[in-house]
Amino acid sequence: MIAHINGTLSTKAPARAILDVGGIGYELQIPASTYVVLPEIEGRVRLHTHLHVREDALLLYGFASTGELEFFRLLLSVSRIGPGVALNILSGIAYNEFKSAVYSEDLGVLSSIPGIGTKTAKRLILELKDKLTEIPAETGQPPDLASSAIAGMISLGYTKATAEAAVHSALRSEHAQGVDVGELIKAALKNV
């Protein structure tokens, strides 16, 4: 098992990063919340990892904090939730918001996460309601609302400059008070 990797960041994108460690490049799949906190290219970084073994591939997933890693592994414990869907969840909602939605059985919030339909939202509630206390309530330094929204727009294919301008424009509107990340992204998309 590979617990973490320390290295030089040679490539970063909203869904992946490549770390150079002693001349070997390790490609890691990452959530948007990790992408937001990565340093510039050639910067030093340490990512906590999860190695996922399939018949046809070995996939390495990287996380900025141990809390994100534990949240990812908890999501993998749900039937029919694979690493791709777990990354979508991590990229689409903060842990505390997710925990609140599961406890209050809020299907609307859960099914608003990209790749999560009503059936999957119900399964998440059913299988995780009693397990959520197993991981720390605080998953490291969470990115602020604007950073999360910008990362979400980048994962949708917008450039960083376009995403930043749209999000900041949405935040300046009078309707941006008390919104969550999903609502902020929807408002920002109207400014693109």
Task: Note down, in words, how this protein is organized.
With 192 residues, this protein is of the alpha+beta class. The protein folds into three domains: 4-63, Beta Barrel (OB fold (Dihydrolipoamide Acetyltransferase, E2P)), CATH 2.40.50; 78-134, DNA polymerase, domain 1 (Orthogonal Bundle); 145-189, Helicase, Ruva Protein, domain 3. The protein has nine helices and five strands, in the order E-E-E-H-E-E-H-H-H-H-H-H-H-H. It has helices spanning 32-37, 66-76, 83-92, 95-103, 107-111, 118-128, 145-155, 160-172, 181-189, and strands at 4-13, 16-21, 24-29, 44-53, 58-63. A five-stranded antiparallel β-sheet has the order 3-2-1-4-5. A hairpin with a 2-residue loop joins strand 1 (4-13) and strand 2 (16-21). Helix 7 crosses helix 9. The longest helix has 13 residues, at 160-172. The radius of gyration is 17 Å and the shape is globular.
Give the SSE map.
Elements: E1 4-13, E2 16-21, E3 24-29, H1 32-37, E4 44-53, E5 58-63, H2 66-76, H3 83-92, H4 95-103, H5 107-111, H6 118-128, H7 145-155, H8 160-172, H9 181-189
Antiparallel strand pairs: 1-2, 1-4, 2-3, 4-5
Helix pairs in contact: 2-3, 7-8, 7-9, 8-9
